[in-house]
Amino acid sequence: MDHFHQVNGVLHAEDIALPMLADAVGTPLYVYSRATLTRHARVFRDALAVLPRVKLAFAVKSNPNLAVLKVLAAEGYGADVVSGGEMERALAAGMAAEGIVFSGVGKTHAELARALEAGIGQFNLESEEEGLELAEIAVRLGKTAACALRVNPDVDAGTHGKISTGKAENKFGVPYDRAAAIYARLATTPGLTMRGLALHIGSQLSRLDPLEAAFTKIGQLMQAIRAAGHAVTHIDFGGGVGVPYKAGEVFPQPKDYAAMVARVTQGWDITAMFEPGRVITGNTGVLMTRVVRVKEGVGAPWVVVDAAMNDLARPALYDAWHDFAAVSPTGETMEANIVGPICESSDTFAMGRTIDAVKRGDLAVFRTAGAYGATMANTYNSRPLVPEVMVDGTKWAVVADRIEPATILAAERVPEWLA
Ligand SMILES: Cc1ncc(COP(=O)(O)O)c(C=O)c1O
Ligand SMILES: N[C@@H](CCCC[NH3+])C(=O)O
Prior knowledge:
Blueprint: E1 5-7, E2 10-13, H1 18-25, E3 29-33, H2 34-48, E4 54-59, H3 66-74, E5 78-81, H4 84-92, E6 100-102, H5 109-118, E7 122-125, H6 128-141, E8 145-152, E9 174-175, H7 176-187, E10 192-198, H8 209-227, E11 234-236, H9 254-264, E12 271-274, H10 278-281, E13 285-295, E14 302-305, H11 314-318, E15 324-326, E16 333-339, E17 348-356, E18 363-366, E19 388-391, E20 406-412
Parallel strand pairs: 3-19, 4-5, 4-12, 5-6, 6-7, 7-8, 8-9, 8-10, 10-11, 11-12, 14-16
Antiparallel strand pairs: 1-2, 2-20, 3-13, 13-14, 13-18, 15-18, 16-17, 19-20
Helix pairs in contact: 2-9, 5-6, 7-8
Pyridoxal-5'-phosphate is lined by residues 59, 62, 80, 103, 165, 200, 203-204, 238-241, 275-279, 371.
């Protein structure tokens, strides 16, 4: 704590090194960079400026930390929410209700009513049944709900099966072939204003062609619905643009994505909506951890760290790769199996990987942990919820062991002194 002083409840320090944060807050600890977050938000927003009318709704599920939401609100982002809780967080962060889009197959009656009362901008209906229930509530409350119909385009996103959402066998949206008829019925239902279509075919997409195929199908559907005499003024293209997790991986850039959307939607006369999550937050955060001990193994040693699958679930759930780097690398490397302390063999971050050499007590980070990291944390094995801090800096150089200049901006789930 010696390095910090508090001003209006915000911690300041001249120059923050990760070890200082580890000493002050403890590990495991998520650390987010405001500078990187702001840069990503601007790169994505600026790329899409090639389109005539754009609305950005940050996918809150990827990182619902209030500090993150506040930064994005200031950059002009609204929110894509999938629960009443996410909606309350977006509102608490200062996002305008009008800029909030509510997605999800299981919105409850209470959630629909609260969202209507709050005046959110758009409901992305995932079924006709949901539309009829919302209409009933709207009529009772004397309101009109602006809606888009989420369509399942039956396109393979080419991503991990557990995060693919646009194949016919996935639970999301209404079947493509039935969408025009459902749209027509909902468009004449009192209480609803059908204004558009929505789709989202999956997360962590490494290629643009599945998106292009899906958007093209949605364009054809839009033409058919318009030809039947109904308005389609908004298309919500979802999220899904992927990010590199391994050094050296190459992914389509936001400007490539924007160019594709511009080409496909030429002449559509729509407001284009986007729900980016991972592409904004993925590479804005790391999970810092301390090596508890290095245990002899068969073949490679077990590097047991104090972070676990309850803090970062992605490797256990999707066999996901997160680069591991020592905070103060010596230049030496070692072959290791990296595991957490939880009593499950799935609590494994990496097997047989060449990493920076580490020993007991060393600090290290799992990189690209800003999306679907802390938000998926839980308390399994009665471990406390992992803390998160945001550092306000102009540089983000984790491996070089420095984040500078620094102000810890805001934090959640942290010890009382930081609150
Ligand atoms: C409806 C919807 N919109 C947006 C997203 C955000 O996706 P991503 O983080 O891949 O951009 C998701 C998650 O896959 C989603 O389900
Ligand atoms: N949780 C997933 C992404 C889910 C996207 C939600 N639609 C991941 O970590 O990759």
